[in-house]
Amino acid sequence: MGGSYRPLQPLVLACRTCRAPMFWAKVASTGKNIPIDAAAREDGNIVLIDHRTCTVLGPDEAAEIPGRKYQSHFVSCPDAKAWRRARGIPDSPPVTREEPPCPSPSKS
Q1: Number of C-beta neighbours around residue 10 at 10 A
Q2: pLDDT band of 92, cuts 50, 70, 90
Q3: Is 92 inside a domain boundary?
Q4: How many domains in the chain?
Q5: Which of 11, 27, 86, 88 would you call most buried, defined as having the most Cβ atoms within 10 angstroms of its Cβ?
Q6: Residue 2 in domain
């Protein structure tokens, strides 16, 4: 087998509303998925552990860590509010439909 080794890269997608390139990664400490801008940034606060997992750094940590850092797409997306879920509000109970009454058997 020839060729060179290439590390796995995140799957870059387009945001469904603003169409900017982004990818999803799971935050190692919480297990939650977050959208991340595809372009690395000097002032970013997210570091990839591997192509699917990341760590979110505090402001002091981010300034000290060299290398590729990223930013949450929630920061740059003009439609971010439409995608955020409300915090502290329990999920609504499932909607149930009332079944129509069964028709009476007809007498013929």
Answers
A1: 17
A2: very low
A3: no
A4: 1
A5: 27
A6: no
Q: Is residue 73 part of a domain?
A: yes
Q: Given the structure tokens 């129509």, which residue do they identify?
A: 100
Tell me whether residue 60 is in a domain. yes
- Structural domain including 67 reads 27-80
Entry pTM: 0.68
DSSP of the chain, one letter per residue?
--S---------EE-TTT--EEEEEEETTT--EEEEESS--TT--EEESSSSEEEEPPHHHHHH--S--B-BHHHH-TTHHHHPPPSS-PPPPPP-PPPPPPPPPPP-
Contact 73, 20 (CB under 8 A): yes
Residue 92 tokens read as 């609504």
